Amino acid sequence: MVQEMLNDTVRVNARVTDVFDIYDFQHYSGPNPYLPTGALVFKFTQTHTQQPLPLEEYINAICDRYPHLREETYDSYAEIFARTLTEVGKLDMGLHFHQWSIDPQPHFTCIAIESLHARTHRAVAYLVWDWFEAITQDKDIALDEQIKTLQNKFRQSVYGGPTVYSLWRTAAQKGIPVFYLWDEGLVQYGYGKKQIRGVATTFEWDSHLDSDFTTRKDDCKAFLHTLGFPVPLGEVVISRTEAFGAARRIGYPVAVKPVEGHKGIGVTADVQDEEELDFAFDKALSAIEGDRPIRIIVEKSIKGADFRLLCVNGRFVAATERRPASVTGDGYSTIAELIRRENRTEARSDTPTSPLGKIICDESMENYLDEQKLSLDSVLDPKETVYLRKVANLSAGGLSIDATPSVHPDNIILAQDIAQYFRLTCLGIDVIAEDLSISWKKGNFGILEINAAPGIFMHLNPAVGESVDVPAQILETFFESGTDARIPIITFNRISVRELQETIDHILLQRPDWVIGAVCREGTFINRSEKAFNSNYNTNVQSLLRHPKLDLLIAEYPEDVLERDGMFYFGSNMVVLDNPSETERMLARDVFHDSTVVMREGEEVSIRRQGLIEQYSLGTDEPFLRVYLKETGTVL
Asked: The ATP-grasp domain covers which part of the protein (predicted)?
């Protein structure tokens, strides 16, 4: 399916000094004649205004930046250009784009690279083109700086959030169909009646009542207390005066946070006196949306480390310790300089796959430094470490440390007991404890809050410790394998409405309770009922696969649609080809091992399944329809 038309009617980028040109861009979001994945496709050629350098000089320059590419061989400028493009397209953060192809033509070469976000990968193509021209002219290019710009472009796309991307990549690796529903702002995993839709770690299966309940921190805290779980003593206040009174009754130090909130926004821990409480109250107040009532929690601050316990489908799966951002002195650099230096490290590239975010400098950090009688201009002694915040907020540069192996069984049971009370796929439980290896029944332990939409990348890629594959465990809640996420699909290169309806009738005779979706160039159908037809062909396919009761899809993909739009889905259980063109033969390329491929060429018919081929000739006046109808039983 084409999400963005990126065709250039003229060659707009070639300058008089250029030796190469790239033009006629098109982005496919699914399988196409060039690759079985989403792809950016364009033409590559020499301009002939001047001669390029020898091929080896481009290879050497590229391999200086990507040494592992020297292990491969390249026979043309187009080949090294395409291979470089796939490597730069990973954006120095290990994105899962590896496939590429070249198709040499008399006057140009068609290049296709695996792609997800059209605008990012088109910008990557232009960057690589600029790099090749810089090599030709023996000039430098700010490659690292431009890659960082592209990282931000990808991160700002609907695919670029760490949680969304990690789930998307895992789905792709497991063969689980995944696509974005633009109108709804949701991600759909699976097809038809097998589907599940969601936003990040929240899914349609989740109870919206339970999700809302977790945001009402005072009510949720009271509920946990009723169940006998360890929660710190606290009160809900609506004014600064009430906050001061609550703190005196509870006893300093206290923690202050808005009743409705998430991701640590507006939270201040370890408030020691009224002066700090005054600042903490303002911080919590600023985090409350304008139309919401003022309701702020003041509760006893418990000494210990900050941990996140994560449960998936009621089961404990991971634990992470979160430490506030810190810097270590060298005897001559200021804290501000140490922060800038730390933010330049690769680990803090702040991408969807980096373990650390940038250290954020704001009023809260400066106030905490002031409490320590420090400022951004202070110079720390060699090896002197200073924490920059009281709260271990990862989005502000905090450190994540995997703590999963050390969790005491009592603490695992506690997390699971809490999760069992909520109909939520993912539940994050934030706790303060001296050590998770000590039972909550014996140690200094308190539950701070629970989260219905927890981020998961801290577990998948912690700054310290082993990775826990949380995305896989989330998706395995719904699908044991990619097969469990799919409904049967029958794909034709050519079929009339009459033949389509006969095929539907034939299947319904065997499966009368099924809902069958079908699309051809002449219309869209649910069983025999004709539905509205969208001018964008693949939108019809997506709408059918979005149908939550669909048992089977039948789709026609003729040559013109394949070349213009590509396919919406990968993988057919049965493919029927009637005198196919070379382009239409790609339908037989994207099948599973146990799929059935029925092909007619003239009067000759072949049937292929699980590596076996049967061939015969059609009888006089024998319709091709009769041949493939008897094969539909293989997909039912």
From this structure: 221-479
Residue 623: is the preceding peptide bond cis (ω within 30°)?
no
User: Tokens 């949380």 correspond to what residue?
Assistant: 470
Q: What is the pLDDT of residue 12?
A: 52
Using alpha carbons, select from 416, 438, 436 the residue that is nearest to residue 427.
416
Predicted confidence at residue 290, as pLDDT, reads 78
Burial pattern 357-391, b for ≥16 Cβ within 10 A else e, equals bbbbbeebbebbbeeeebeeeeebeeeeebbbbbb
The letter for the amino acid at 418 is: I
Q: In the block, which residue shows the tokens 């799919």?
A: 486
455/357 Cα distance (integer angstroms): 14
Please say whether the dihedral angle defined by the alpha carbons of residues 541, 542, 547 and 549, taken in this order, is positive or negative: positive
- Interatomic CA distance for residues 109 and 79, integer angstroms: 9
Fold of the 487-634 domain: Rossmann fold (3.40.50)
CATH number of the domain at 305-476, out of 2.40.110.20, 3.40.50.1010, 3.30.70.890, 3.30.470.20?
3.30.470.20
Nearest to 440 by CA among 418, 468, 464, 465: 418
The residues of the chain scoring below 50 in pLDDT are: 1-5, 7-11
Rounded-to-integer distance, Cα 332 and Cα 370, Å: 20
Asked if residue 33 has a cis previous peptide bond (ω within 30° of 0), the answer is no
Please count the other Cβ atoms lying within 10 Å of the Cβ belonging to residue 481. 11
Strand-pairing partners, residue 427, are: 311
In angstroms, the Cα distances linking 531 to 192, 528, 569 are 17, 9, 21
pLDDT tens column, 54-96: 999 999 999 999 999 999 999 999 999 999 999 999 999 899 9
Residue with tokens 């710190």: 232
Indicate the DSSP class of residue 15: -
DSSP β-ladder status, 39-46 and 109-114: antiparallel
Query: Domain 233-300 is of which CATH architecture?
Result: 2-Layer Sandwich (3.30)
Determine the residue type at 534.
N
How far is residue 451 from each of residues 47, 152, 206, 467, measured CA to CA in Å? 57, 27, 13, 21
Question: Rounded to whole angstroms, how far apart are CA atoms 190 and 472?
Answer: 15
Give the DSSP letter of residue 381.
Answer: P
3-state secondary structure at position 299 = strand
Residue type, 121: H
CA–CA separation, 52 and 21 (whole Å): 12
What single-letter amino acid sits at 456? Answer: I
Question: Residues 129-140, buried b or exposed e (16+ Cβ, 10 A)?
Answer: bbbbbebbeeee
- Does residue 332 contact residue 379 with C-beta atoms inside 8 Å? yes
